[in-house]
Amino acid sequence: MATNAYIKLVPSSVKMDITLDEVKELLLYYQNITSKTGEQLDWQYEDAAFPYEIKENEEGKGKWFYLYSNHDRYHTIIFGVDKETIVNSDGTKMEQTYIQITLPESSTFGDKGKANEFCKFIAKKLQGELHLFNGRIMYYYPRK
User: Which domains does the chain have, with CATH numbers?
Assistant: First the structure.
């Protein structure tokens, strides 16, 4: 059965709305900084830190994309962006954007570890609320 993690963009986040292309840019940024770390260490760290290719098919165009790997420890992670309506404590309704990270049945334990890394990285960059695969919540935004 597929498992999901969510990064919710709350009012205290850096931005309230995000596109799929911006999520791709964050992953490419992650890939870039890990390759620079590898250069400093004189080691092919980029291959170990980001062993995926970003792919998008016609059916998911604009709604989701996936990371695919042909390494033996990794397989697939799916990223999507959507909105939900939430009710505030004062009863007003508000639209909230979230990033959904899905591990399909074909995913490995390596995928889960990498997905957790990517979730934490993106949530920290956006100062969002991260709902992990195990149901726990991590708050990366300034709380009052």
Answer: 3-139 (3.30.310.120)
pTM given for the model: 0.89
Percent of the chain exceeding pLDDT 90 equals: 66
pLDDT at 121 over 80: yes
Write the burial class of residue 23 (CB in 10 Å: 0-12 exposed, 13-18 middle, 19+ buried): buried
Tokens for 28, please give them: 């490419």
Contact of 133 with 3, CB cutoff 8 Å = yes
Question: Rounded CA gap, 61 and 64, in Å?
Answer: 6
* Residue 16 CB burial class (10 angstroms; 0-12, 13-18, ≥19): middle
> Which one-letter DSSP state was computed for residue 59?
G
pLDDT digits (tens, 9 = 90+) for 7-32: 999 988 999 999 999 999 999 999 88
**Phi, psi (deg, nearest 5) at residue 34:** -70, -30
